[in-house]
Amino acid sequence: MKQLLYILSICLFLSCKNDPKKTESESTIGDEPAKVQVSKSGDKFQLLVNGEPFYIKGAGLEFGNVAALAEHNANSFRTWRTDNGRKSAVEVLDEAHEHGLMVSMGIEVERERHGFDYDDEDAVQKQKERIKKEVLEIKDHPALLIWVIGNELNLNYTNPKVWDAVNDISKMIHELDPNHPTTTTLAGIAQKEINYIKERCGDLDILSVQMYGDLPDVPKLIREYGWNGPYMVTEWGATGHWEVPTTDWGAPIEENSTLKASNYLKRYKGGIAADTLQCIGSYVFLWGNKQERTPTWYGIFLENGMETESVGVMHYIWNGKWPDNRTPQIASFVLDGKTAYNSITLEKGKEYIAQVIIKDIENDPIAYRWEILPESEEVKEGGDHEARPESVTIEGMEEKNGTLKFKSPAPGNYRLFVYADDGHNHQGTANIPFQVN
Hints:
The chain is of the alpha/beta class and 437 residues long. It is built from 10 helices and 19 strands. The chain has helices at 2-17, 24-27, 66-71, 89-98, 121-138, 161-176, 191-200, 218-224, 257-273, 309-319; strands spanning 36-41, 44-49, 52-53, 56-60, 76-78, 102-107, 144-151, 182-187, 206-210, 231-235, 279-284, 329-335, 344-346, 351-359, 367-374, 395-400, 403-407, 412-421, 427-436. β7, α6 (161-176) and β8 form a beta-alpha-beta unit. α5 runs parallel beside α6 (161-176) and α9 (257-273) packs parallel to α10 (309-319). Residues 1-30 have low confidence and may be disordered.
């Protein structure tokens, strides 16, 4: 009889799991919401989940591989909104729960740089009412960890009333949901914003900071600007496109995947692990892939789902050991004998040679793929959507063992990309901007 009941319960679970019309309550039958708290002992802050310490080992993830995140031993991911256009918040939380992960759920809050007016009381109230519905739908889901109210609301803004709105939203959330803390994220960190948060957002439980090249400065700046509470780093990763050298024609020079990986580890140690008192964890950006200046800049996965070397770094950070098989490393990459920092100019229709030298720790055989893209002209800010440029046909192409012979395309600004595949779901990658006269 017990065996029959067990089989029936499994069938019921699978039926519910595969039903796209299930409600939030149906998706979490028998599960209670997690009780998440921020605790302080002496000078040390800690996140507690159901009374147990929970240091956030996570990644920003909107459309990335949740199963892979769990396999690499992360414990959480963050989102930017409750509905990403492909999955509802319930579906996102269900998938996280299935893989033993928790979610810092993003709540979309309008930005002044997109035209929202925080002096418009009716618009502010409508936004609050919309957010209330979103909170009520998922507040009791067992995979919910933290509410993230807005993203980089300080980017190109002038009206400090946005912080009043954030505080009102936090108060409303705490009234509806006593089980989960609230935060908001800042682009960088500055004295002005810390003062505003302290003065106008006293209801927030945690501060969130988003830093890239300057990440190792965060612990010092947190103290210098007088933030005495807990914080987490909700975006960090590759050197930002605004932080790197540029070519003579203004193209930002992207670091190759090996240099990126090295910087990930160095920045994590200096900017996150170094603060054992106030920092409660972090979310690396981005567990997935996106076009932002290039298709390879910020995602630690490539468009085809392959892992870059930075995934291996996160595995090391989360496990204390490297993965069994490592990603191919970029030893050097040149075009016409020059690096990306030489502002390379080519002549139309002339033949040129590019060469990449790869180091693979396991000496796996390497397969190479090459691509030329026009320099992106659709450049946005704050991570707003950008369209990927279309590939250019490589004329006169001859490739062998990491050496490419080709004819330059029509006049314009381009990038030459190389991808080195080890046959184990890993690819090293690099690109060189070049200009054709």
